[in-house]
Write a structure and sequence with these properties.
This protein is mainly alpha-helical. 58% of the residues lie in helices and 0% in strands.
Length: 85
């Protein structure tokens, strides 16, 4: 029985194994993580490019006297609730 099995293996033609990059399952497995890495790099580039300057002191417009339309909400609420003199 062992001789027949060996003879059967020899009679079948050898099928060449394709290189790893031609196997579809490899791209299915690697495609997800590669897409996440590319998306994170694009997100980081957008975040760095669109970042606003950090203010270390109040802006010049905050130092000027503001009218009622430009007051912050909390300050306007507190002013409306204060008793009239």
């Amino acid at each position: 029985m062992n001789d027949t099995h060996t003879a059967r293996q020899r009679s079948e033609p050898d099928v060449p194994t394709p290189p790893w990059w031609r196997v579809g399952m490899v791209w299915l497995v690697l495609g997800g993580p590669l897409a996440v890495v590319v998306a994170s790099l694009i997100t980081a580039a957008i975040a760095v490019d669109g970042a606003e300057e950090v203010l270390t002191r109040p802006a010049a417009s905050e130092l000027e006297v503001q009218d009622a339309a430009t007051l912050p909400a909390m300050q306007g609420r507190n002013h409306a609730a204060s008793p009239k003199r």
